[in-house]
From TrEMBL:
Descriptive protein name: Cobalamin biosynthesis protein CobD
Compartment(s): Cell membrane
Pfam families referenced in this protein's UniProt entry, alphabetically: CobD_Cbib
Record key words, sorted: Cell membrane, Cobalamin biosynthesis, Membrane, Transmembrane, Transmembrane helix
Pathway linked to the protein: Cofactor biosynthesis; adenosylcobalamin biosynthesis
Keyword Transmembrane helix part of the UniProt annotation: yes
HAMAP family membership: CobD_CbiB
Main location: membrane
Function: Converts cobyric acid to cobinamide by the addition of aminopropanol on the F carboxylic group.
Membrane topology: Multi-pass membrane protein
Family per record: Belongs to the CobD/CbiB family.
The organism's place on the tree of life at top rank: Bacteria
């Protein structure tokens, strides 16, 4: 694509590593507020209403992305700066890793109340019904899935489509997190958001899986075990993408993920992924280290891809 895209993606990744998410006036939070406000007008218990909600918000974001991209067209420094700022805005990998470490710290200190209070920052499960082992498992599964969602996927779409790709992916993923649930309110209205997110993550989840397999030795894991768990178990998962990320992580760590999963809207019985014992605190720390390695590899890969002829 353009040198400015490659450099901007790397700089934006570095900015995320240095400072994490913006502490105030986060654009993604602003998008979420706008989506919630629009939902009050578009909500109906039907799929078509959800399609309209998705098209308006994702389409509007695409228009914004194209407009921002045109501002920098032909001006290397401006284009690079805009790409870097956009990349920083849509990435969440550093915050994910920090939260994973904080969870491990609280579990090691046997601070279950603190660990339960932290869990909603990682996933939507009901923390009140989880013991220390359940919290560790939930955190590992969230680290695995969100390594792809929060970093690998936006970088992949940034490499393929520049600033519009970065912004549109984050809009799609945010809407899925807001309405893409199987509960009574969103089973129909959130269908479009959930399916769009599945499509947007088909390629990134598999990039994340390949990197997890390749980098497993960095945490004492075996690529063959990670690949075996991916090939054997990923298709069991109800998500076509989370199953890839979680099974590859389970194989790399040598643990078993899945089983009964309690959400606020009710329980789900998830298939087991991987082989070995349930994850403990040490495994959570290893998962965070592997996540950071996958994120860095994804950033470098995205930069190379963005320079390749299209």
């Amino acid at each position: 694509m353009r040198m400015s895209t490659a450099v901007g993606l790397v700089l934006g990744f570095g900015l995320d590593r240095a400072v994490g998410d913006p502490r105030r006036w986060h654009p993604v939070a602003g998008f979420g507020s706008a989506a919630a406000a629009l939902e009050s007008a578009t909500y109906r218990d039907g799929r078509m209403a959800g399609v309209v909600h998705e098209v308006v918000l994702v389409g509007g974001t695409a228009v914004l992305g194209v407009a921002v991209d045109r501002v920098g067209r032909g001006r290397f420094a401006v284009a690079t700066a805009l790409t870097a700022l956009t990349t920083w805005t849509v990435l969440g990998g550093t915050t994910l890793a920090r939260t994973g470490r904080a969870m491990a710290d609280r579990l090691e200190a046997e601070d279950l109340a603190g660990a339960r209070a932290l869990l909603p920052a990682l996933c939507g499960r009901d923390p009140e019904v989880l013991d220390a082992d359940g919290l560790a498992r939930a955190a590992v599964e969230s680290i695995a899935e969100n390594t792809s969602d929060a970093t690998v996927a936006p970088l992949v779409w940034g490499a393929l489509a520049g600033i519009p790709g970065l912004l549109v992916y984050r809009a799609v993923n945010t809407l899925d997190a807001m309405v893409g649930y199987r509960n009574d309110r969103y089973r129909n209205f959130g269908w479009a958001a959930a399916r769009t997110d599945d499509l947007a993550n088909l390629l990134p989840a598999r990039v994340s899986g390949v990197l997890t397999v390749a980098l497993a030795p960095l945490i004492g894991g075996r690529p063959a075990a990670a690949l075996r768990a991916w090939r054997r178990d990923a298709a069991k998962h109800p998500s076509p993408n989370a199953g890839v990320a979680e099974s590859a992580m389970a194989g790399a760590l040598g643990v078993t993920l899945g089983g009964r999963t309690q959400y606020r809207y009710g329980p789900e019985l998830r298939p087991t992924l991987g082989d070995g014992p349930a994850p403990r605190v040490a495994d959570l720390r290893r998962a965070v280290r592997l996540s950071e390695a996958v994120q860095l590899a994804a950033a470098l890969t995205a930069a190379v891809v963005s320079l390749s002829p299209k």
